């Protein structure tokens, strides 16, 4: 190793140890608009049947948001600590919500995280220096399938919490996510056209159905890796019971009082209010179960049901619950 490289490593370790980059986050957020410009980081465009397109990255035959090939190539080598918790799930299945629950459980405080799940551990996009600067215990999060997660996750058998939500509400939320982040995606298409892309799996992170199929065998074999499936609809219906279930999986002792505080602090209104001035505010829409009825036509609804029957036959991890 050359002298220059050793000096670079020394500076990097110094910045990580003293969390220098975390103190600079308020300044860096002033340049959010600049970072949202994905023109240089995208290497692919997904085009709907009306000719409207969105920017993306195509890497190893898979579609991802336009985070840049350089970042995607480094994911396998991210440094994982033994006390990390990994949050996974297809986009728009409750990851922001569950991230805050996990943050409170592992830290023993009913306080929302300072920066949310993005700057707070989103490995898909955040540079290593931010991830490495986070204090332990960390709640890292990703929308990657198990095989594409950092090698250290498998080596340490890092506990994984996997979120899932019914596919009809998921596609509605995903569409609104893409439209609300127009500076990032540059997509101006209508729902009917985006739906066709989504049902075909021609969106960032690919097919919802393929994503969960890839986790099914792992969930059936807990000896291979500890994974807890957390259902969006279940937490909505019974938050106390499900937070206790997560705590048990994480081997965290909790009281009813503490869990009740978590329920209150992680309510949709509380979180949306907390993030009102942040970029993440655009990611909080309604947080409801059943909004798909205001969006999907009968034909689209049946298309989702058909895809489930066809692709998810024999899948035991989850059966959609619709209101």
UniProtKB/TrEMBL annotation:
Transmembrane segments: none
One Pfam family from the record: Sulfotransfer_1
Keyword terms, alphabetized: Transferase
Domain of life: Eukaryota
The keyword Repeat appears for this protein: no
Domain Sulfotransferase: 83-313
Family named by the database record: Belongs to the sulfotransferase 1 family.
Protein name: Sulfotransferase 6B1
Gene field: LOC106012753
């Amino acid at each position: 190793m050359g002298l220059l490289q050793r000096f670079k490593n020394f500076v990097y370790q110094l910045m990580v140890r003293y969390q220098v980059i975390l103190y600079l986050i308020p300044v860096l957020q002033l340049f959010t608009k600049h970072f949202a410009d994905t023109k240089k980081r995208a290497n692919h465009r997904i085009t709907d049947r009306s000719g409207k397109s969105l920017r993306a990255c195509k890497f190893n035959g898979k579609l991802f948001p336009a985070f840049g090939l350089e970042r995607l190539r480094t994911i396998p080598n991210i440094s994982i600590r033994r006390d990390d918790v990994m949050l996974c799930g297809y986009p728009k299945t409750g990851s922001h919500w569950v991230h805050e629950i996990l943050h409170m459980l592992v830290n023993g405080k009913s306080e929302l995280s300072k920066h949310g799940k993005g700057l707070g551990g989103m490995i898909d996009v955040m540079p290593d220096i931010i991830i490495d600067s986070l204090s332990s215990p960390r709640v890292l999060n990703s929308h990657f399938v198990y095989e594409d997660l950092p090698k250290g996750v498998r080596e340490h058998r890092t506990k994984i919490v996997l979120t899932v939500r019914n596919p009809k509400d998921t596609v509605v939320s995903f569409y609104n996510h893409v439209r609300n982040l127009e500076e990032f995606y540059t997509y101006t298409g209508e729902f009917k056209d985006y739906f066709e892309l989504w049902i075909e799996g021609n969106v960032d992170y690919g097919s919802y159905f393929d994503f969960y199929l890839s986790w099914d065998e792992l969930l059936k074999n807990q000896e291979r890796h500890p994974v807890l499936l957390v259902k969006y609809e279940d937490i909505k219906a019974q938050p106390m019971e499900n937070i206790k279930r997560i705590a048990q999986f994480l081997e965290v002792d909790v009281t009813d009082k503490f869990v009740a505080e978590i329920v209150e602090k992680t309510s949709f209104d509380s979180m949306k209010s907390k993030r009102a001035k942040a970029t993440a505010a655009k990611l909080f829409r309604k947080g409801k179960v059943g909004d798909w009825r205001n969006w999907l036509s009968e034909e689209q609804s049946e298309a989702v049901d058909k895809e489930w029957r066809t692709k998810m036959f024999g899948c035991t991890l989850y059966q959609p619950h619709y209101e």
